[in-house]
Structure formats: structure tokens, C-alpha cells
Amino acid sequence: MIAQNNKTPLADRMRPQTLAEFLGQDEIVGPGKMLRQAIAADNVPSLIFWGPPGSGKTTLAQIIARATKAEFIRFSAVTSGVRDLREVIKKARENAIEDKKTILFIDEIHRWNKAQQDALLPHVEKGLITLIGATTENPSFEVRGALLSRCRVFVLKQLGQTEIAEIIKRAWRDKERGLGQLKIKIADQVINFLAGLSNGDARVALNVLEYASTSPQPSPSKGEGVIISADIIKQAFQKSPLLYDKDGEEHYNIISALHKALRGSDADAALYWLARMLEAGEDPLYIARRLTRFAAEDVGLANSRALEQAVAVFQACHFIGLPECNVILAQAVVYLAKCEKSNELYTAYNRAAADVRELGNLPVPLHLRNAPTKLMKELEYGKGYKYSPDYGYKEKQEYLPEKLKGRKYLK
What are phi and psi of 73, to 5 degrees? Predict the structure, then answer.
């Protein structure tokens, strides 16, 4: 069936079939790498592929499926559960009798809950199943520690613009699986434009290319095909997708980047990371809360008004909401970035907390204890306490437990 009549999405038709066709991730499957050798030797261990959308996790699993002699079973964690797993285990036991391996690929494994992952664990541990899990979320948080310890974790990087552009060119030229029979014309600068908008996601790039190919502009010369322009690409995109899951890994990466840009007094970078969050739909009150924390942790005593500013910004965001509150958050971000910094309060508290954790519940000195009853007074609660105003606030008195006498947390 020719490409234009093929109802299978272009992104799926253009999946690489071998490692030789697979672009990117040379740190994992490049020549001489251990995983590439394991695939060639048909001795693949249990794996977790962690990476952003469109980086090649599922494609790499399918390449392994074609290269191995094991039975390859695939299902999605979204639609499959423990009942489906029981059928897989049954099949794996039958394969084991015939000395045949079973590879189970679970897409979006982070969506499996604790009980589902626990059901899988003993079979991976015994080697009955070789697991390949794919996830866009940090497996340290989303995959059970016992299961994670029995898998090799490989981190797939976001594809670069050059790699995305090459994937687009392949799809454009390929006459069997791609759009090669449609006689489409697309300039290199338009390909690079599409690659840049795709945010490292090959699937997005190919989906947009396929959609754009349904309404290209006629070529000025008859019989020379049709043209996909940058304007058509923009229309096909509607809006450049932003990689930002408010409950996922990138959420924490970006708020971390904002915090560190503020700490480094880079107002421009801080504004960029703020815009990344707001334009992707982040809750402005979440950002305002983080800025309030920053005002105390990283500005602190160097400028006590920073905390006032942050609290005022939180209240203003609560009153106004998006989109109008974006400039209010911008004001706070720039103010905090330009403030003189001090983490004295943060480090002092951590020193005090360390003593609490190490030494436990040290007794309150008797002279500091409250004595509301006669018995407590007889037990000398409060005895010897010096009332500070009576001494002009210059009294010499110990306020720490005996074991911490003279301890200094503020440097």
C-alpha cells in the first residue's frame, strides 16, 4: 500500500527497524556500548528506559524485539493490569519449558501502582521474565526500589534539532513508508524550523509533517509537486508544545532551574524559567509559594523586606489570577534575583535541627520551665530565671539545654 493511502500514522510507519537506522542515544547503543553488545548476543537484561516523549524508548524496545529470539510481549500500563500479567506469566512458564526466554515490555510503567509492580517482582527476580519498562518519569520515584534494583536503568536524552531534522528528511523522502510518493517540496530551512518547534520529540515532528502534507501550497511550476511552507507548519502546530508535566520530572527540573537562577542573581534566566512554567499552565500560587520560601532561605537577613514582597505577591496572585498576575510574579522574580543574598537563616536552622535529631529530647533547663502549679514550683520549675526587662535585656543567662551550652548556630 502506498504511503498516501496508508492509515497507519507516519510516526509509526517510520520507526527504525534496526540499530543502524536508530538516531541518537549513542551513549547507550552506539558502537561498542554494552547494551548494543547485549542485544547482538541476545542476552538482554531487565531494563528501564527513562526519557522524554519521542526520544525513542518504545522504538528501542521494538528493535530489541526484532533482534531477540525470545518471545516479546508488549502491553501498556494504562490499559493492562495484574490479570493480564497472570496470562504473561503463564506463557512465560510454557516458554521456559521449551528453554525459550520471555521479554515483557511495559510502556508507561510509572502508571503501575505498588501492588501491580509487586506482582511483577518475583518473576523478574527469578529470571522467568526479562522486563523492559519505558517511562517519562524519574524511576527513582515511580518504580519500586526492589524492582528497580533488578533492572539496568538507561537514560535517553531529548533528541537534538539535527537528529529531528534528519528524521523529518527520511520521512519526506521515503517512498515506501514515508511521504516520498506525494511529491512534496519542503526547504531545508522549513525542515529546521519544524525540528526546532518539535522540542526534541520525533513523534511530534512527524505528526505535524503528516498533517501539514494534507494542505500544502501548489508549486508555481505545474507538475513539480506542492510546497510545505513555514506558515503551513505554524498552522499545523497551532501552538508549540511545551514539555511540562505539573506532576512529573520536568516540573521539578524547571522549578529547580528558577530557584538556582535566582540564587545566582541572574534575573534574565529567572524570567525565562518563570515564563516556561506560566506559559505551560503552572498554578501561579505554586510559584508564589516557592518564591516565598526563596525569600527566607536565600535572601533572608540580607534583605528582610524580600519576604514581605513575596507574601504580597502571593496575595496579589490570589486576588487577580492568570493571565494578569504574570507581571506580578515577574516583579517578584526580578526583585529576588537582584537582592543581596544570605543563607544564614537556612544553615543556622539546619544546624539546630541536626542537634535535635542527634541528641533527641534534651530536658528544658529548670529556670526556663513554666510553673503554673504549686507542685511545679516546689520542684523548682522556673527557679532562678532572670526576667530580661529587669536587667535592661543585658542579663547573663543560659537558654539552651545543658548539653548544648554555648552552642552557636548563627555564624
Answer: -115, 130
Q: Distance (Å, rounded) from C-alpha 37 to C-alpha 23?
A: 17
Query: Distance (Å, rounded) from C-alpha 6 to C-alpha 1?
Result: 6
What's the CATH superfamily of 24-155?
P-loop containing nucleotide triphosphate hydrolases (3.40.50.300)
Kindly give, in sequence order, each residue whose CB lies less than 8 Å from that of residue 233, ignoring residues fewer than 6 positions away. Answer: 190, 193, 194, 197, 208, 212
DSSP per residue, 387-398: -GGGGTT-----
Which CATH architecture best describes the domain 161-237? Orthogonal Bundle (1.10)
pLDDT digits (tens, 9 = 90+) for 222-234: 556 678 888 888 8
For residue 69, give every residue at least 6 positions away whose Cβ sits within 8 Å of its Cβ, in sequence order, or none. 42, 100, 101
Q: What is the CATH number of domain 249-338?
A: 1.20.272.10
pLDDT for the residue numbered 69: 83
How far apart CA 64 and CA 399 sit, in angstroms, is: 67
CA distance 301 to 295: 9
